[in-house]
Amino acid sequence: MYILGVHTGHDAGACLFNELELIAFCKEERVSRIKNDGGYI
User: Fold this and answer.
1) Are 36 and 10 in contact (CB under 8 A)?
2) pLDDT digits (tens, 9 = 90+) for 1-41
3) Measured between alpha carbons, how far is 33 from 4 in angstroms, rounded to an integer?
């Protein structure tokens, strides 16, 4: 079972798990290039 975790507050980010294995993660500031960006594009 895949689980998607999303945090949309200060320092927004998301991660994808398959059972107990971390598949991928990303922080919004990596995409927008704005330090401590608080929301998704």
Assistant:
1) yes
2) 999 998 877 778 889 999 989 999 988 777 777 776 665 55
3) 23
* 18 is a domain residue: yes
d(CA 3, CA 11): 20
Q: Judge whether 17 lies within some domain.
A: yes
Instruction: Say how many domains are in the chain.
Output: 1
> 13: which strand partners?
7, 27
Domain of residue 19: give its range: 2-32
Residue 14 lies in a domain: yes
Let me know: does 16 contact 3? Beta carbons within 8 Å: yes
State phi, psi for 29 to the nearest 5 degrees. -65, -20
